[in-house]
Structure formats: structure tokens, C-alpha cells
């Protein structure tokens, strides 16, 4: 799978943070009360009903509280590229071949996330996604007689990569101090990776992957600063993708090509923004997130002569503007709508997510 295709899966899940932070802002507006005159009130810890930032941690779910969050996410990406191979005689005279490429990618993900507060400072999380992907690729080569066109449609649907995470709140956020939360996330390989899908004799994929194919571990730290009626948030994380010995044949011809060792690029992840409460039920979120994805190193082995070749992919810069809206239906249920707009070349054009956290007492 291409680095651009893999990038979508890295970043699939980031937009889920939109709309959850407003819950804390709404809770702060509700907890503002008039204190008795002549008596200094005791400083209390404001604890929202659900965590403030899904995926990246927040003020955690209270002890014994269970939150189930169904989610639907849609992502779209379009690539329109024109390339020229030939000779430039003058700035207005080109002799050669023009190639036009038009790629449309659509990703649909339905997921169920569960978060359980073991203590008032420790929370466990699990996410189970189901992924459907569709890709349309059209290539046209002009300046040949006749013009040559190639169209290919690929799709696949299957279980995605199941994730588990733990979140720990380091402090109580008193005396105007921000909350600091440590997060540790593990992503499995339950989805169909790029080396698990069907290919033809030339090594060309016949379907799309629904997972990354590599285990990953992501430690991160989150900061939340309440400033009624707003909450400022920031997150900094690093994703370690574990190297794997694939040892898989990808072509079946006179020069059989094997993929031996693959080391996916690690990711530096940054996000920040603000949630603002309009009233006790409604709020909106404005933020920005950026993933800096390193090079992926792949080792190819030619089985006919035993030669080894190492190929490095390009680095990726995935930056997006985050917009969110949240409506609290009752103390246990809220509706969150998030929109992610890609502002860098490597980012998906748009990502839309709809989530409905449902809280209940587990013990």
C-alpha cells in the first residue's frame, strides 16, 4: 500500500476528539454557584461526567462509571495530478508525454468505544472498529495515438485494528492549575494489513487493506486548562510502529520479489484548541492537529539472484483544522459532531464524525 494510503489509517481516529471537550466546558458553566457571604468556600475539584478528549485523554470518567460511545466516521480524499515526461524546448513548447491521474478515496468506519473509570484517576478504554474502503483510480496518457486510459476500482470491508488504552490523571487541577493526563494506547493488527490482502501475479493489489498491519504503541500527555466558559486543551504524543519481518512473496515471475523486513515510520502527534460553552447544553470546539510521519523503510529481496534493495518512502505532513459541535441531551447522553478539514497536501480533504457517548453506572 502506498504511503498516502497508509497515512489515512494512521490518522483514522484523530477526529474523534472533536466535540468531547465541550462536555467539560458545559459542566463548568453548570457548577458555577454563589457562595455564602463572609465565608471562604472550600476549593473543589470540578469533574465532568465523561472524559474531555476521546482518544487522547481528558478529565477522566469517575470511578464506577461506564461510557459506551457508538461512532460513525466518513473520510474523503481526492488526488488530481498532471505529470510531464519529455523535453522543454521553450517555456511554451513541450515535447513529450502528459499523464493525468485522478484518484478518489472514501473510508467509512463504524466503531464502538467503551471507557470505564476504575478509580477517579485511572480509566481503561477499548475501541472496536469496522472499516469499509473504496478507491477509484483513473490514469490517462495523452500525446500517444490513440490516447491510453486505465481505470481501476478497489474496495474492501472487514474488522479494523482494535485499540486498547489507559489514561491516568496526575493532578486534581486545583488553585487554577491545568489538568495533566498521561495516556498509553496500543493498536493491534486485527484488521487486514497491506500484506494480508489478495494480489495478482505482478504484485498489484486486488483489494484494499482495513488495517495498518503493524503493532503500534503511543504514549502521550494531555493538558486541560479550564477558564470558564472555555476549556483550552493540548496534546503531545509519539507513535512507535514496531518493525516486522514480513517475509512475503509479492510477484510470481522470472524474478520473484520478496518483501523481507519493513520498518514503518514513527509519528509525532500534536493537537491543541479550545472548547467554548454557549449554554449548559450546547458548545463548540475549534482546534488544530498535525501528524509528522517519518519514512517507512522496506527491504526487498530478489529470489533469483539474492540481491537486497532497501527503499525509503517520503515523509508525510498531515495537518487539519478541527471544528466540533456538542449538545447535551441529558446528564447521561450527548451528541457530538466533528469536522476535520485537511490543510496540508498529505491530509484527507474532509473527515466527518458523529458520536453519541452514553454514560451509566457500572459499580
UniProtKB/TrEMBL annotation:
Top-level division of the source organism's lineage: Bacteria
UniProt keyword terms in alphabetical order: Signal
Keyword Signal (UniProt): yes
Signal peptide: 1-25
Protein's recorded name: Transporter
Origin species: Halomonas cerina
Amino acid at each position: 500500500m502506498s504511503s498516502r494510503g497508509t497515512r489515512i489509517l494512521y490518522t483514522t481516529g484523530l477526529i474523534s476528539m472533536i466535540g468531547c471537550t465541550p462536555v467539560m466546558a458545559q459542566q463548568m458553566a453548570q457548577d458555577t454557584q454563589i457562595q455564602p457571604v463572609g465565608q471562604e468556600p472550600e476549593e473543589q475539584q470540578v469533574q465532568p461526567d465523561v472524559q474531555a478528549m476521546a482518544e487522547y485523554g481528558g478529565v477522566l470518567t469517575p470511578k464506577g462509571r461506564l461510557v459506551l460511545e457508538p461512532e460513525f466516521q466518513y473520510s474523503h480524499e481526492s488526488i488530481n495530478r498532471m505529470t510531464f515526461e519529455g523535453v522543454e524546448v521553450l517555456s511554451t513548447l513541450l515535447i513529450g508525454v502528459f499523464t493525468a491521474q485522478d484518484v478518489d478515496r472514501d473510508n467509512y468506519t463504524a466503531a464502538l468505544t467503551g471507557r470505564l473509570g476504575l478509580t477517579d484517576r485511572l480509566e481503561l478504554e477499548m475501541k472496536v472498529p469496522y472499516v469499509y474502503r473504496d478507491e477509484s483510480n483513473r490514469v490517462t496518457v495523452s500525446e500517444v495515438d490513440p490516447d491510453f486510459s486505465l481505470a481501476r476500482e478497489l474496495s474492501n470491508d472487514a474488522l479494523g485494528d482494535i485499540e486498547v488504552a489507559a489514561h491516568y490523571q496526575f493532578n486534581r487541577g486545583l488553585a487554577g492549575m491545568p489538568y495533566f493526563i498521561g495516556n498509553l494506547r496500543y493498536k493491534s493488527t486485527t484488521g487486514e494489513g497491506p500484506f494480508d490482502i489478495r494480489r495478482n501475479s505482478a504484485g498489484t493489489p486486488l483489494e484494499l487493506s482495513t488495517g495498518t498491519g503493524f503493532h503500534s504503541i503511543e504514549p502521550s500527555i494531555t493538558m486541560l486548562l479550564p477558564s470558564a466558559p472555555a476549556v483550552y486543551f493540548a496534546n503531545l504524543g509519539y507513535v512507535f510502529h514496531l518493525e516486522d519481518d514480513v517475509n512475503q512473496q509479492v510477484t510470481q515471475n522470472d524474478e520473484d520479489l520478496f518483501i523481507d523486513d519493513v520498518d514503518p515510520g514513527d509519528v509525532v502527534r500534536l493537537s491543541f484548541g479550545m472548547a467554548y460553552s454557549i449554554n449548559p447544553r450546547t458548545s463548540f470546539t475549534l482546534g488544530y492537529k498535525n501528524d509528522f510521519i517519518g519514512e517507512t523503510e522496506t527491504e526487498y529481496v530478489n529470489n533469483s539472484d539474492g540481491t537486497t534493495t532497501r527503499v525509503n518512502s517520503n515523509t508525510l505532513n498531515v495537518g487539519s483544522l478541527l471544528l466540533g459541535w456538542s449538545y447535551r441531551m441529558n446528564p447521561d447522553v450527548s451528541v457530538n459532531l466533528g469536522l476535520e478539514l485537511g490543510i496540508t497536501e498529505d491530509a484527507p480533504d474532509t473527515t466527518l464524525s458523529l458520536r453519541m457517548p452514553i454514560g451509566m453506572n457500572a459499580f
